[in-house]
Each structure stands twice: as structure tokens, then as C-alpha cells.
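Give me the fold.
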Amino acid sequence: KLDETRPYFDSLKAEIKRIFRTVKDLDNKYFFPVNSTEAKDGTYGIVVITADKGLAGAYNINVIKETLRLLKDHEDSKLFIIGEYGRQYFKRQGITIQEDFEFTGQEPTLEEARLITTYLLDKYNSKEIYKIFVVYTDIGKRLDLEVISTRLLPFHSEIVFNSKEEKVVENAFEFMPSIEAVLDHVIESYISGFVFGALVDSFCSEQSARIDATRSANSNSDELLQDLYVEYNRVRQTAITQEITEISAGAKSQKLKKKEAKKYV
């Protein structure tokens, strides 16, 4: 799924770069103010992607630890939990989450990503949240799992989209109906792609973690069975030795009794 959709969203990212290299000093609500390195502080929105079930090693716990770190650094945050495991954990801890933002972590779809994006952008545009973070698990080329905590909004054009490999823009762009309308549409699509990628990445990571946990459990059970088998043989041998000793002692005792009885006959 990710390989099939990634080229489209990579192209969107490239177009956003080209826009910012074409229009200088562009001011947009989805980017840091011009000549600024930081957006003003306010309520954070944290999207947390976990599994629906446990038995996946440290997969869920590592995501939760990173989320708790963010909450510790910025208490004024709203949690948007994807996955039943994370949802139940934060409920047990008494940490408030957005109850109307309930999605499963299984079989992610682009439609779900769009719904999540629309919901987040509504909160962002209405200034209910000023920054959006996504906490998810990335699966590397070597199947190494790493918890990623990234700021989704706002962007900074010079930091996020600066690249020496970009081609030089030779012709001026014409934006219809306006550059703001074009950016709003393109960035919304790009964020949908990012969210979808994080969902799929997390789902793949969950399956990998579950396989590793199962393999480890099987290995541990084999070792446990081997230890139990050795212990069983030791106990069994001890019991047999004890029985032989008792039989031998009984036979010897009976033999001595017969000898004693013959003396008095």
C-alpha cells in the first residue's frame, strides 16, 4: 500500500518546495512566520498510533513512553489515540483523550487518513491546537523498529523543504485561484499522505514486532521445556534411586532377620 501511494505524495512534497522557491517571503498559516524559527506556543495535538492488542513485545510500550515524554514537556496537550491498546492505557492512567477520535490500528486506509487529517486541520485552523505531533513506529530497511516523534504542523520552509538536489525554477508560476488556495489544498493532501504513511508504517512494525515476540516466546518455551525435561529426569532418577535403596535395605533387613531366627531354632 505504502509503495503504491508514496510516489504521489513525494511529488506533492516536491511541488511545495518549488512553490516556496518561486514565491519569496510567503506567509501561510501552515508554516512558521517568515524569518522565524519557532511558532508561538499553545495547545499541542498529539496523534499516537498503537496496536489494538498486546503480545507485540515492546512495540506499544515504546510508543507510550515517547508520548508520556511529550506530555511531561508540554502538559497542555490533547491526545488523539489510534489503537485500542493506547486508548485503554491512557484511560486507566486517567489521562484525557479525544473520545470522538477512535480508529483501529489494523488495516489502515487512505480514507481513514483523510478523515484524521480533516479533523486535525479543523482543530488547527480554529486555533484549538497550535502544533500537531505524530508518534508512531517506523520500520527500517533492516526491519529495525524505531519510535518516531515528529512535528506535523507547522512547517518551516527553510528547514523542512530545503534541499540542494532540487531543480532550479526557471519559469514563473501562475496560481489559480490564488497561492493560498493552492497551498491549502496541496498541504492537506500532503498531510493525508504523511498520516497514511505513519499508519501503514506502524501496522507493518506491529506485525514485525509480533513475529519477533512470537519467535522469542517459542525459543523461551523450548528452553523452558528442555530445563523441565532435565529437571524431570533428575527427579525421576532420584526417585528410582530412592526406591532401589529402600528395596535393597528392606531385603537386607529381611535377610538379617532370617539369620537371627535360625540361631534360635
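Residues 179-263 form the longest helix (85 residues).
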